[in-house]
Amino acid sequence: MGTTSYVFFGLLLIPLIVFLIWMIKQDKKKNYLGLFFLLFGIVIALYTIIKLDKNFMENNGQVAPKSSSFK
To answer: Which residue spans traverse the membrane (predicted)?
Structure first.
Protein backbone atom coordinates (compact mmCIF):
# COMPACT_ATOMS: atom_id res chain seq x y z
CA MET A 1 0.00 0.00 0.00
CA GLY A 2 1.14 3.50 -0.72
CA THR A 3 1.50 6.35 1.71
CA THR A 4 -1.76 7.93 0.57
CA SER A 5 -3.61 4.70 1.39
CA TYR A 6 -2.24 4.74 4.94
CA VAL A 7 -3.24 8.40 5.37
CA PHE A 8 -6.72 7.63 4.01
CA PHE A 9 -7.17 4.66 6.37
CA GLY A 10 -5.84 6.72 9.28
CA LEU A 11 -8.28 9.55 8.66
CA LEU A 12 -11.21 7.16 8.47
CA LEU A 13 -10.15 4.67 11.12
CA ILE A 14 -9.72 7.13 13.99
CA PRO A 15 -13.30 8.53 13.78
CA LEU A 16 -14.63 4.98 13.35
CA ILE A 17 -12.95 3.79 16.54
CA VAL A 18 -14.23 6.83 18.45
CA PHE A 19 -17.74 6.20 17.10
CA LEU A 20 -17.64 2.52 18.11
CA ILE A 21 -16.49 3.40 21.63
CA TRP A 22 -19.30 5.96 21.90
CA MET A 23 -21.80 3.39 20.60
CA ILE A 24 -20.71 0.80 23.17
CA LYS A 25 -21.14 3.33 25.98
CA GLN A 26 -24.66 4.25 24.76
CA ASP A 27 -25.94 0.65 24.71
CA LYS A 28 -27.98 0.16 27.89
CA LYS A 29 -28.75 -3.53 27.29
CA LYS A 30 -25.09 -4.38 26.66
CA ASN A 31 -25.98 -6.46 23.62
CA TYR A 32 -22.63 -6.94 21.92
CA LEU A 33 -23.83 -9.23 19.12
CA GLY A 34 -24.55 -6.31 16.76
CA LEU A 35 -21.17 -4.75 17.47
CA PHE A 36 -19.50 -8.11 16.89
CA PHE A 37 -21.04 -8.37 13.43
CA LEU A 38 -20.18 -4.74 12.70
CA LEU A 39 -16.54 -5.26 13.67
CA PHE A 40 -16.44 -8.57 11.78
CA GLY A 41 -17.68 -6.79 8.64
CA ILE A 42 -15.10 -4.04 9.08
CA VAL A 43 -12.29 -6.59 9.40
CA ILE A 44 -13.44 -8.38 6.25
CA ALA A 45 -13.69 -5.08 4.37
CA LEU A 46 -10.22 -3.95 5.48
CA TYR A 47 -8.68 -7.28 4.53
CA THR A 48 -10.32 -7.16 1.10
CA ILE A 49 -9.30 -3.55 0.44
CA ILE A 50 -5.69 -4.15 1.48
CA LYS A 51 -5.45 -7.34 -0.59
CA LEU A 52 -6.96 -5.70 -3.69
CA ASP A 53 -4.74 -2.63 -3.32
CA LYS A 54 -1.65 -4.82 -2.96
CA ASN A 55 -2.55 -6.84 -6.06
CA PHE A 56 -3.25 -3.68 -8.05
CA MET A 57 0.06 -2.08 -7.08
CA GLU A 58 1.99 -5.27 -7.95
CA ASN A 59 0.31 -5.75 -11.34
CA ASN A 60 0.24 -2.10 -12.42
CA GLY A 61 3.60 -0.44 -11.98
CA GLN A 62 2.45 2.84 -13.44
CA VAL A 63 0.12 5.08 -11.49
CA ALA A 64 -0.74 7.58 -14.21
CA PRO A 65 -2.49 6.42 -17.38
CA LYS A 66 -0.61 6.41 -20.67
CA SER A 67 -1.13 9.40 -22.93
CA SER A 68 -3.18 8.77 -26.04
CA SER A 69 -1.60 8.86 -29.49
CA PHE A 70 -4.58 10.24 -31.40
CA LYS A 71 -3.64 12.68 -34.17
So the answer is: 6-24, 31-50
